[in-house]
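ok new one. same drill as before - structure tokens go in, u give me an amino acid for every spot. 173 of them this time. try not to just spam alanines like last time pls lmao
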């Protein structure tokens, strides 16, 4: 069966950066609804017409995935506003009460990138923002979508990877 909307595709993939460093690997096949909300548009475009067993390579530019890196989403806040056990890599939805940086989006996830005695550096960019990505996809199976999947525009699986459907305006957290 050729991949055409609506159908369900079972995929594995390897996601690398432009220097071929592995970022994400989906080793076990996972089903995705093709023609709905489960995959990024450039991935769907690349898969169109392929069949089980095909390998597809996709170059994803920043604007197609997580957007450009925005330095205006980086800020410095007083260390006293954060928990005592604060560590780099911790994430917070929005800035803490009492934050001093004006005009920062409240609905953004901010990751702690550095902790100093007097201040904390927070970054609201997706970790892959500004990066070109290479995706090698293996089509493991293709099947017809059932009525529930067509109505939901998704197979509703809970498998999370960095390339589940997301628009640059709605980065994955």
């Amino acid at each position: 069966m050729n991949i055409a909307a609506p159908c369900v595709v079972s995929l594995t993939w390897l996601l690398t950066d432009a220097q071929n460093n592995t970022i994400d690997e989906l080793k076990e096949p996972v089903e995705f609804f093709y023609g709905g909300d489960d995959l990024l548009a450039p991935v769907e475009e690349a898969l169109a017409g392929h069949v089980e067993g095909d390998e597809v390579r996709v170059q994803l530019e920043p604007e197609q995935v997580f957007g450009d890196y925005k330095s205006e989403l980086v800020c410095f806040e007083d260390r006293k506003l954060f928990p005592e056990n604060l560590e780099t890599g911790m994430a917070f939805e929005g800035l803490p009460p009492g934050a001093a940086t004006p005009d920062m989006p409240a609905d953004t996830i901010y990751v702690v990138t550095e902790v100093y005695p007097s201040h904390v550096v927070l970054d609201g960019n997706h970790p892959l923002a500004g990066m070109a990505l290479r995706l090698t996809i293996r089509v493991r199976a293709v099947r017809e979508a059932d009525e529930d999947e067509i109505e939901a525009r998704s197979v509703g699986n809970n498998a999370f990877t960095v390339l589940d459907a997301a628009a640059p305006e709605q980065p994955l957290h």
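Residues 41-47 form the longest helix (7 residues). and btw The chain is about 10% helix and 35% strand.
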